[in-house]
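note to self: dont lose this again. the chain is below, predicted strucutre after it. 94 aa total, dont forget to put it in the shared folder this time
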Amino acid sequence: MVPTGKAPIGGDGGCERLEQALRDCHKRLPEGPARRSGCWHLNRSFAECLVATVCPNEAEAVRTLCSSGGTALKRSQCEQAKFSFSLCLSSLQL
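---
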């Protein structure tokens, strides 16, 4: 869901263009399956941008360590990275 306010939520983290593209997509397409399908890639990209902005190290660790299967050690490191990422995001919730 895209906020209806005019103020950008992307801040100065470099996500403003994605946010504007997502807002434009929501204006162009009517609510429903067409919008969900048509704006999906922008929604995902914007979410990933915001998350990478607020928890950059943790997001990168998950991206790196969880990108493929690998050894038991890598899977364990992936789980630890996901936990650290979750803690980072949780610490930002109000």
